[in-house]
Design goal:
Number of helices: 9
Radius of gyration: 27 Å
Distance between the termini: 50 Å
CATH architecture of the largest domain: Roll
Strand content: 15-25%
Largest sheet: 5 strands, mixed
Order of helices and strands: EEHEEEHHHEHEEHEEEEHEEHEHE
CATH topology of the largest domain: Ubiquitin-like (UB roll)
Shape: elongated
Strand order of the largest sheet: 2-1-5-3-4
Length: 344
């Protein structure tokens, strides 16, 4: 694969031909402020925060491919001035309730503002309009606060490029521009599939999960909702699971999750959930070990043969597990009476 060598802030970098300046910098731990960029999406150059200097000319780094011998400066008086004014305009009407926002310390706008050095006196010079857009709480899994939206378009592009749903798009013009569903209806009445892919990519707090709690640690696991086997990380706080995120490195799902895999974890914390096998003794169910339960099942099955026995398998098992189960039913138990819950 062809490669190019360029210099960013005096650091010589070799990257793949066709890679943008911004991605090349980020891949080599050189921070260039940005808001509308996401590695999973095609670059669009909306926010204009990622400007850099190339031979005295300002360009947006997320749309400019790296070229052989290119010399890039991420800092210059003109670049810094442009970047600062752009950021000031973005936060002029942005809510300042950072401490109560689910994106606090993980907000790209917060990071950009801190990096460029926003001055409170200068921020007060801008004419601030009062935006009172209602928070859309119709979705059962996350809320949408358009007052916090910076119109980066990441949610729109995610819904179109990754999910192929296009449930949202830009609506209105000028200061009235928003991200809206068809007919500006609540999310729950739109074609939104509640996959949460837009939620995990939103750089600010415009999209936030309901009842959010920051996890204390993460545990690597596999989703149990179907046989695909999507990799995920369970966010754990104390003895409870408080969140889920997809495993980016997993070849099965590449970090993507469906609505069940991302949000359907409440059952794990339910107080009535069974955590050990139960065996009926003297008319009452009592807890038993797995060896006891399996020995009991094996002894009971040995008394049945042929059409006395029927089985039903689970969609949560892998294809391999279901194959073994149908072989057990047909060869060991001697019957074709087998069905699958996904067909019922």
């Amino acid at each position: 694969m062809d490669s190019v060598t360029l210099t960013i802030d005096g650091v010589t970098i070799t990257t793949t031909k066709g890679t943008t300046i911004l991605q090349a910098a980020l891949d080599n731990d050189i921070y260039i402020p940005h808001l509308c960029h996401h590695p999973d999406l095609d670059p669009v150059g909306i926010c204009r925060v990622c400007v850099v200097d190339i031979n005295g000319k300002m360009v947006i780094s997320c749309k400019t491919p790296a070229r052989e011998g290119m010399v890039v400066k991420t800092e210059s008086p003109e670049v810094n001035k442009t970047r600062k004014i752009t950021t000031e305009l973005l936060i002029a009407n942005h809510p300042m309730n950072c401490l109560s926002c689910s994106k606090d310390t993980d907000c790209q706008l917060q990071r950009v503002a801190n990096y460029v050095g926003i001055n409170e006196d200068r921020r007060q010079l801008y004419r601030r309009t009062t935006k009172t857009l209602p928070v859309d709480t119709s979705n059962p899994f996350f809320d949408r606060d358009l007052d916090k939206c910076v119109l980066c378009g990441i949610c729109i592009r995610t819904c179109e490029e990754i999910q192929g749903v296009s449930a949202i798009d830009y609506a209105g013009r000028g200061l009235s521009t928003t991200v809206a569903t068809l007919g500006n209806k609540p999310l729950v009445e739109s074609s939104c599939e509640s996959c949460g892919e837009c939620l995990v990519r939103c750089p600010v707090g415009a999209l936030s999960p309901k009842n959010y709690q920051r996890p204390a640690r993460e545990v690597k696991s596999v989703c149990t909702y179907c046989g695909v086997g999507c990799g995920l990380y369970l966010g754990v706080r104390g003895d409870k699971i408080v969140g889920v995120r997809g495993e980016k490195e997993n070849p099965t799902n590449r970090g993507m999750l469906c609505v069940k895999g991302r949000f359907g974890y409440d059952f794990i914390n339910h107080p009535d959930r069974l955590t050990s096998p139960l065996i009926k003794k003297d008319g009452k169910f009592v807890e038993a070990t797995w060896d006891e339960a399996l020995d009991l099942v094996a002894s009971k099955l040995s008394t049945y043969k042929g059409e006395q026995f029927a089985s039903i398998s689970s969609a949560k098992c892998t294809n391999e597990d279901n194959y073994v189960f149908q072989k057990f039913t047909r060869v060991v138990m001697g019957t074709n009476s087998i069905d699958h819950c996904a067909r019922l």
